């Protein structure tokens, strides 16, 4: 069986994260499918992973720590995606996160009323499917795969390092 070094795995994870974010922005801004708040939150781990991998390449001193952080990031991604999937399927009720918009700009009741008149996307509604799967379902699979892969690398660090 061939060995792939950590550096190659991190490049693959960087590429997957970049493609995931690019796809999400393409679907939102080019195809016109508005994301719900949980969809927006699900993008955060991919952005964080890109930043962490860049930091790893700038300073290779803490590579194992960076891998541990990536495990936590994609575990968070899995949990949020699973929760979102549960809302889509009716297993969980929508939380306040699904209906909140940027509340920092709301000062007056007129602004609050204006915000309430805007169309908000429900976390239950799937506006885009890829091969019959919602993007949340794809994110669950991808996050779980990356978490397991990174955990394998972390626990066998010396083997993958050489």
Give me a quick take on this structure:
With 162 residues, this protein is mainly α. 70% of the residues lie in helices and 2% in strands.
Structure description:
By secondary structure, the chain is mainly α. It has a single domain, classed as Bromodomain-like, CATH 1.20.1550. The protein contains 7 helices and 2 strands. The chain has a two-stranded antiparallel ribbon with strand order 1-2. Strand 1 and strand 2 form a beta hairpin. 24% of the residues are buried.
Q: Architecture in CATH?
A: Up-down Bundle
Helix content: 55-70%
Number of strands: 2
Shape designation: elongated
List keywords for this structure.
mainly alpha, Bromodomain-like, two-stranded antiparallel ribbon
Structural topology:
Layout: H1 6-30, H2 37-58, H3 63-89, H4 96-99, H5 109-117, E1 129-130, E2 133-134, H6 135-155, H7 157-161
Helix pairs in contact: 1-2, 2-3, 3-6
């Amino acid at each position: 069986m061939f060995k792939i070094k950590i550096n190659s795995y991190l490049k693959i994870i960087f590429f997957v994260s970049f493609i995931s974010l690019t796809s999400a922005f393409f679907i939102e801004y080019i195809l016109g499918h508005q994301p719900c708040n949980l969809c927006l939150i699900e993008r955060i781990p991919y952005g964080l992973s890109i930043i962490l991998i860049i930091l790893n390449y700038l300073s290779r001193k803490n590579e194992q720590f960076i891998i541990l952080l990536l495990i936590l990031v994609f575990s968070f991604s899995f949990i949020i995606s699973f929760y979102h999937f549960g809302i889509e399927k009716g297993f969980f009720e929508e939380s306040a996160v699904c209906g909140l918009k940027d509340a920092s700009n709301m000062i007056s009741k007129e602004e609050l009323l204006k915000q309430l008149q805007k169309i908000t996307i429900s976390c239950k509604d799937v506006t885009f499917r890829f091969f019959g799967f919602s993007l949340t379902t794809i994110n669950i699979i991808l996050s779980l795969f990356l978490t397991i892969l990174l955990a394998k690398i972390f626990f066998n660090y010396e083997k993958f390092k050489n």
